[in-house]
Structures are given as structure tokens and as C-alpha cells.
Design goal:
mainly beta; 2 helices; 199 residues; globular; 5-stranded mixed beta barrel
Length: 199
Amino acid sequence: MRKTRTLAVTALAGLLLGASPLMAQPAVTPAETDVVEFPGRGAVEVLSYPAKFVSADVVTRHAIFEGANGKRWSVVIPAGVADLSALKNGENVTVRVLPAVVTALGKAHQGTPGEIIEQVAVNEGLPGLPEGYGLVSVTMTTIFVGVDKAAGTVTFEGLGGKVHTVRAFDEKVLEDLQKVEPGDLSQISYLEGISLTTP
């Protein structure tokens, strides 16, 4: 799987945001939540975040947005999703996030819930991604709200405290899921679809 690494830019974004890149991102509330049927994955939530575009590194695809509450947050916009060079500071956009598949998880011995450890644009790993979306791998520290070992799902707080329920399919991940419980401080990696549109 070919990946586009963005760790150095995450550090730069942290400076722009006035916080360490390993700190939790500010609370951002989705305006609406839709549920779509994902091929082979079942029902998956799509979260819509209205925002204003602030800036972006067109090489690494790391972009900064400002929510309606004035808080700034950052996300990787995969190539092919939007022409970042054409966006203007203050332009209204909508970022849509489709959390889909857990790729790794386990208990964390340290870290702050909501802390984004890594965001990496990838070009494969989630067949059936809706048109207009690109794929990002996210690794973060969180607290599991729920664990359904029989169904192979975990429920956790993501961006802005929004609660996601995401399913694991990989055999190793399903084994690791048996070792965690609700309330555990954990590290989770998952794939999510990202789209960016303008009015």
C-alpha cells in the first residue's frame, strides 16, 4: 500500500494552531449525520462539517479549517478529492468524513483522549469508497465507549467528541478486540473516507 506521509506537516499545523500536534484537536460539531450502506461493510455514518478554508500545503495535502465556533482543526485531504490550490482563505466548504474500518487497536499506557497521532493519505484498502471520497488512515488515542466482541465493533469518541461505531474485519484486529473493554484508554487505527466540497 503506497502512503503519503504527513507527520512533519502535522507538526507545522500544530504550530499554526498554537498547540502541539499531539494535543487533542478542538471540538468540531458535525451539522448533520447520514447513514450509507457500504459494500461489504454494512451501515456506515457520514459526518458533515461545514467550515471555512484557512490554508493548506498542496504537496502534503494537509489542510486547516475553521469551524462555526471559531475553532481551527486540521485534516489530510487526499489527492483527487479537491484542488487545494484553487481554494481561498475564508472560502466556505463542507468536509465529509466516513469512518469505516478498524485496522489496529489496543490498550494505551499513556496519551490524551482525542490526540491525533498520525493522519496518512493512502490509495487503497477500502473497496467501494463512494465517488468523491479519498482514503485516509488515522491513528489516535481515545477511550472506548463500547465494545461488542460478538459483532466485532468498537465505539469511541472521535473528532470533537463525536461518537463513532466502527467494525473490525481483520482476524488479528478481532483477536485484539477481545482484550479491550469499555472505559479503556486505547490507541486505535482506522480507515476513513474524506470528501471536500464547496457550495
